[in-house]
Write a structure and sequence with these properties.
The protein is an alpha/beta fold. It has one domain: 3-Layer(aba) Sandwich (Rossmann fold), CATH 3.40.50.360. Helices cover 43% and strands 16% of the residues. It is built from 7 helices and 5 strands, in the order αβαβααβαβαβα. A 5-stranded parallel sheet has the order 2-1-3-4-5, sandwiched between helices. Helix 2 crosses helix 7.
Length: 206
């Protein structure tokens, strides 16, 4: 497995692949979180050199990290579920956006399980996310966006990733499906974040 991760990184560098993935941590398909992440990734469509992919955690089994530290020796997570294919796509990407709705003031359990395990496996494979570009996007009905945004932001910073700014924090308001579409400022912020990601990735590869 370590060879697979390393190969994914090397191939991306050799062939100049520009890819940004958007991970949707919501159990709802086509919900508010997905809409906002897609708004950020929509900016890449204006750049022919960029490819995007949406990865939904909905319907997938991402068990929580048990802190067994088997990944320290195995160089991979030994828990058998849907984690590894998602992790491989994270390693192969230049940019990573992680979106989550706020559940009781925090990111969804699926989102937290993913970043906990991805963080450990990355560290024990030589910090695979170092200098990738990315950041969080968060949606909530009323409150909790800032805490959840910070919670996810800590993952990006801990992994040595580069987090571009925007016109505001990447948060928006909405509960019922499509309600986030009424938050014009939130959508504008997400789109500007996508533009900044493209700009940074291009500068890093220049």
């Amino acid at each position: 497995m370590p060879v697979t991760y390393l190969t994914l990184t090397i191939v991306g560098v050799m062939y100049g692949m520009n890819k940004i993935i958007g991970i949707i941590g919501s159990p709802r398909v086509d919900g508010n979180t997905e809409y906002l992440v897609k708004a950020a990734l929509s900016e890449t469509k204006k750049e022919n050199e960029f490819e995007t992919e949406i990865i939904r955690l909905a319907g997938k089994k991402i068990n929580p990290c048990t802190a067994c530290l088997a990944c320290k020796d195995e160089r991979r997570c030994i828990i058998e579920d849907d984690f590894d294919p998602i992790f491989e796509k994270m390693v192969a990407a230049d940019g990573i956006v992680i979106g989550s709705p706020v559940y009781f003031g925090s990111a969804t359990p699926e989102t937290k399980s993913l970043i906990d395990r991805a963080g450990y496996v990355s560290l024990y494979n030589g910090r695979l996310f170092e200098n990738k570009v990315g950041g969080p996007i968060v949606v909530a009905r009323r409150a909790g966006q800032n805490f959840t945004f910070a919670q996810l932001l800590f993952f990006f910073l801990h992994q040595g990733m580069i987090v571009p700014g925007s016109t505001y924090w990447n948060i928006a308001f909405g509960r019922e499906k499509d309600e986030v579409k009424e938050d014009e400022e939130g959508i504008k912020t997400a789109r500007n974040f996508g533009k900044k990601m493209i700009w940074v990735i291009e500068k890093l590869k220049a």
